[in-house]
């Protein structure tokens, strides 16, 4: 039986780990994702530049690049949850009726807010 040198095993193991990590974690790193209520996902660049949030206490307009994630609550829940890149939360109703996204294939798609469950935005 032929012995295999550690000089060969370590670089090959490192390469395999790097390829796995890139596939598992890096595939959508440069894209936004919209999760739909029907379970589908659309990946691309969200074109909506700002989101206006109305709460019982105020109306706030947030730039897209300040937002990490938007959870759109189901009907009957009177607020959505916006997670900011800096870690804070804003609760209120997203006023936009639709969200536009340009898919990786270059197609612009406009979705009704009611179709969406979650919007995941990459930090800019």
Question: What report would you give on this structure?
Answer:
With 124 residues, this protein is of the alpha+beta class. The chain has one domain (29-120). It contains one helix and ten strands; from the N terminus they run αββββββββββ. Strands 4-3-7-6-5-10-1-2-8-9 form a ten-stranded antiparallel β-sheet, with no helix packed on it. The longest helix has 20 residues, at 6-25.
- What low-confidence regions span 5 or more consecutive residues with pLDDT below 50? 12-29
Mean pLDDT level: 80
Coarse structural class: alpha+beta
The helix/strand series, from N terminus to C terminus, equals HEEEEEEEEEE
Distance between the termini: 54 Å
Biggest beta sheet attributes: 10 strands, antiparallel
Key structural traits:
124 residues; alpha+beta; ten-stranded antiparallel sheet; 16% helix
In brief:
With 124 residues, this protein is α+β, with helices and mostly antiparallel strands. Helices cover 16% and strands 43% of the residues.
Task: Show the helix and strand layout.
Elements: H1 6-25, E1 32-36, E2 41-46, E3 50-54, E4 59-63, E5 67-71, E6 80-84, E7 89-94, E8 98-103, E9 108-112, E10 116-120
Antiparallel strand pairs: 1-2, 1-10, 2-8, 3-4, 3-7, 5-6, 5-10, 6-7, 8-9
């Amino acid at each position: 039986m032929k012995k295999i040198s550690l000089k060969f095993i370590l670089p090959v193991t490192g390469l395999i780990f790097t390829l796995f990590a890139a596939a598992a974690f890096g595939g959508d790193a440069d894209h936004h994702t919209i999760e739909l209520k029907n379970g589908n996902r659309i990946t691309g660049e969200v074109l909506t530049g700002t989101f206006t949030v109305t709460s019982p206490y105020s109306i706030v307009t947030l730039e897209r690049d300040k937002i990490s994630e938007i959870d759109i609550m189901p009907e009957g829940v009177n607020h959505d949850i916006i997670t900011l890149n800096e870690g804070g939360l804003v609760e209120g109703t997203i006023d936009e009726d639709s969200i536009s996204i340009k898919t990786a294939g270059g197609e612009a798609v406009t979705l009704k807010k009611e179709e969406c469950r979650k919007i995941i935005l990459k930090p800019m």
